[in-house]
Amino acid sequence: MNSSFVEDLIAQLTEFAAGLEQWQQLGALLLFGMIPFVESYLGSFIGIVVGVDPLLAVPAAVIGNIVATFLMIALAGGVRDAATRGRSGEPTSKRKRRVATYFQRLGVPGVSLLGALLLPTQITAPTLIALGARRGAVYVWMGIAIIVWGIAFGFFGERVVAWYG
């Protein structure tokens, strides 16, 4: 994704949230958490920068991100079940085997926690399911990752506001 596009998106979301009443800002942060590449971390950050209490901003963005990601896990699980009925679980292409090897090295916890650095959780979670990860583990570790990143960026947002405030 183009960095200029992401910067513009963040600026527009921040401007949008700043123009709302506080109760509306919480709803906006919930929705921001559902947007790939914004998610809990930038949703929390935006909320704090526009003046929402961190104890409200972080949970709002986290809940939005969890709802969207868990929906993707459920959908991917159903699709995988239907697609693999009667087939072996071994990847067939060289590329799929490489991805599966990477997944095996890091496991669900590593991919969940570190995957946010590269891809949105709404993409990482279904990919893990497609590779055959246990749904329960993906739900737990994606939930943990979303919360951890939301809190970390909420803290970062607090520091930015304190520094410039």
Descriptors for this entry?
0% strand, elongated, 165 residues, single chain, mainly alpha, 7 helices
Concise description?
By secondary structure, the chain is mainly α. Helix content is 79%, strand content 0%.
- Poorly predicted runs are none
How many strands, which pairing sense, and closed or not: the largest β-sheet?
none
| Portion of residues within helices | over 70%
The helix count comes to 7
Mean pLDDT score, rounded? 88
Residue share in β-strands: under 5%
What is the global morphology? Answer: elongated
Number of strands: 0
Q: Which structural category do the helix and sheet elements fall into?
A: mainly alpha
What separation lies between the terminal Cα atoms? 31 Å
The overall number of domains is 1
What's the alpha carbon Rg, rounded to whole Å? 17 Å
* Strand and helix order: HHHHHHH
Report on the structure:
This protein has one domain (3-164). 79% of the residues lie in helices and 0% in strands. The protein has seven helices and no strands. Helix 2 (22-32) packs parallel to helix 4 (54-84). The radius of gyration is 17 Å and the shape is elongated. The model has no long low-confidence stretch (mean pLDDT 88).
